């Protein structure tokens, strides 16, 4: 029996997992929900769905061109900051960025972490990457991409 875990809150999924008699029962009941696509396939599909070229996303992400293309080809794996930069380049909202982080197997944004809260706020309000970097700088927080945000 497969459940529709995509329509269930994370809290509910945790409850179901902890109530399962065995982890195998849990894994069997979740079926495909445990499978995540390769990061490169996922970002390529996002571009394709939006009719965008990777180059324009890479540029908006403020990534070096050859590095960005290696991410799209799957020959490089991104850091968490790079995933977040791509979220801005792909013009994702906060939920889309959380999904992108999940596919990249990176830690989700958390509202109790000041830097994460600023980033999520900017994603939710459709701020650009430069606007986000400025807000991080204004709050003396590390910029995306390993740059230091010191006033």
What is this structure, in a nutshell?
With 151 residues, this protein is an all-alpha fold. 58% of the residues lie in helices and 0% in strands.
Describe the structure.
This protein is mostly helical. It has a domain at 39-138: 434 Repressor (Amino-terminal Domain) (Orthogonal Bundle). Helices cover 58% and strands 0% of the residues. The protein has nine helices and no strands. The protein has helices at 10-19, 23-30, 39-50, 54-60, 65-73, 80-89, 94-103, 114-124, 129-138. Helix 4 crosses helix 5, helix 6 crosses helix 7 (94-103) and helix 8 (114-124) runs antiparallel to helix 9. The longest helix is centred in the first third of the chain and has 12 residues, at 39-50. The protein is globular and about 50 Å long. It starts with 9 loop residues before the first helix and ends in a 13-residue tail after the last helix. 22% of the residues are buried. Residues 1-5 have low confidence and may be disordered.
Please report the first level of CATH classification, the CATH class of one domain.
Answer: Mainly Alpha
Q: What proportion of the residues form beta strands (DSSP E)? A: under 5%
Backbone CA Rg: 17 Å
- The name CATH uses for the topology of one domain is 434 Repressor (Amino-terminal Domain)
Oligomer: single chain
Order of helices and strands: HHHHHHHHH
Number of strand segments:
0
Portion in helices: 55-70%
CATH architecture of one domain: Orthogonal Bundle
Please identify the structural class as seen in this structure. Answer: mainly alpha
What global shape is seen?
Answer: globular
Average pLDDT metric: 89
Task: Report low-confidence residues grouped into runs of 5 or more.
Answer: 1-5
Give a quick account of the main beta sheet: strands, pairing sense, barrel closure. none
Q: How far from one another are the termini?
A: 56 Å
How many helix segments? 9
């Amino acid at each position: 029996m497969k459940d529709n875990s995509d329509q269930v809150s994370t809290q509910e999924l945790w409850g179901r997992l902890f109530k399962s008699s065995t982890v195998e029962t849990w894994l069997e009941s979740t079926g495909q929900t445990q499978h995540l696509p390769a990061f490169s396939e996922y970002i390529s599909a996002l571009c394709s769905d939006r009719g965008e070229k990777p180059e324009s996303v890479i540029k908006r992400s403020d990534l070096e061109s050859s590095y960005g293309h290696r991410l799209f080809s799957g020959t490089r794996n991104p850091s968490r900051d790079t995933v977040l930069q791509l979220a801005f380049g792909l013009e994702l909202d906060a939920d889309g960025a959380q999904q992108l982080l999940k596919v990249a197997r990176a830690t989700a944004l958390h509202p109790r972490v000041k830097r994460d809260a600023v980033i999520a706020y900017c994603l939710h309000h459709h701020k650009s990457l430069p606007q986000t970097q400025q807000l991080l700088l204004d709050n003396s927080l590390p910029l995306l991409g390993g740059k230091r945000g010191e006033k």
